[in-house]
Design brief:
86% of the residues lie in helices and 0% in strands. It has 90 residues and is mainly alpha-helical. It has one domain. One of its GO terms (cellular component) is membrane.
Length: 90
């Protein structure tokens, strides 16, 4: 129990990253319900990039190679999707 209450800066970064990462599914679900079909809103990609970035920082701090390899490629994928959406809009 004491370890659970002993949060340092990087545990908070990891928790915020996880919240951002989870929010992407909530915004996707709400957007899909409103549209009556499956859609992926721009905010999905923003939450994905933000969450993945913070989780990668946390994984590097923890020196967890599995977690690092799981998050690092996502930054490229999410950034590319954001770029393509912005490019299409302009």
């Amino acid at each position: 129990m004491n370890r659970f209450l002993n949060w340092d800066f990087f545990v908070i970064v990891g928790m915020v990253g996880q919240v951002f990462f989870s929010m992407r599914f909530i915004v996707q679900w709400i957007a899909s319900e409103k549209a009556g079909k499956s859609v992926i809103p721009f905010s999905f990609w923003i939450f994905s990039l933000g969450g993945s970035s913070l989780l990668l920082v946390y994984a590097i701090y923890r020196k967890d190679p599995v977690f690092i390899l799981g998050q690092a490629p996502n930054l490229l994928i999410y950034s590319r999707n954001i770029y393509l959406i912005k490019k299409k809009r302009s």
